[in-house]
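User: Some background: our group keeps a shared notebook of sequences we're curious about, and every so often someone picks one and asks for a predicted structure to add to the entry. Today it's my turn. The entry only has the sequence so far, pasted here. Could you supply the structure so I can complete it?
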Amino acid sequence: MNNKLCCILVWGGKWPWFAMHFFRSCYENRNTCDYIIYSVEERELPFGMKLSNVKVKYFPMGEFIDSVSEKIGFQYGGTDRAGFFKFCDLKPFYGYVFKDDLKEYSHWAMIDMDVIFGDMNSFLLKCDTLGIKFEECDIIATKDYKLDGCLTILRNTEYMNKLIFLADNVEYKMSDTTLDYGMDEIELGEKILFREDVKTNIKRINILNSKIDSDCASNAGLIWKNGKLLNKQNDYEYFVYHIGIYKWNPSYRNSFISMDYNMDMWDLYKLEYHKNDIPEYNDETRRMDTYKDKYNKIGNWVYNE
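Assistant: Of course. Here's the predicted structure to add to the notebook entry:
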């Protein structure tokens, strides 16, 4: 693991049904990105596979809460299973909390697991065409008006890693166990970054139309092919596909898991979504091992040590 960019995710619970496609898209970026997943439950990569650029670090929940609280200087409120949603509030603190693991990286990214990555190298090279070299970018975003929790890249500097501490009532919001406050997209993305004293100190790149949500995939003729997310009609390239709320939709889930993650092309534009389906929020329908008959083999793409 020796790339310049490290993507970070804190995870609780078993792997979800979309995990294999996520991991496949991570691995296809092995020459550009490393991925560290901090799991608060003892967990290995599915099927015992070893991916050269993906590391899962076990961090028991109690120890994790204590460690985060000690590092940020006040109590962190992710205290129980409901607290898994509180992990979203922790995202903009990643650079500060996990700084020991990020020493070798120039940049780090907050990500989600309900995504499929495209060619991240193309994404980073596009910074050059917009006037700022990747190495000099403080923030690389996929939207014009705010940050996106599913993929935002920040420069690994003390200034950028401490920006989130400028949030109003930050201690109260981070210690509250009942709510998540959108510390990533709202507090950092819509408030702090628009402060005059902050805007003058950062170099920001917004790579527009680089993210595509699941409800737009059909119209865009979206495919994932050999590590790239493309509009098959005109080869327009996207960099991240976000499943979002569709992950609770049974027809979409069943359509999604029918795509063989071992293949080199996935027809994302063909995925079905029935609006009248009753959303399923229970843990059993969310878990990958519930559909183990669909995930029973690993192709030649897997790197095994």
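Suggested note for the entry: The chain has a mean pLDDT of 89. The domain at 5-208 is CATH 3.90.550 (Spore Coat Polysaccharide Biosynthesis Protein SpsA; Chain A).
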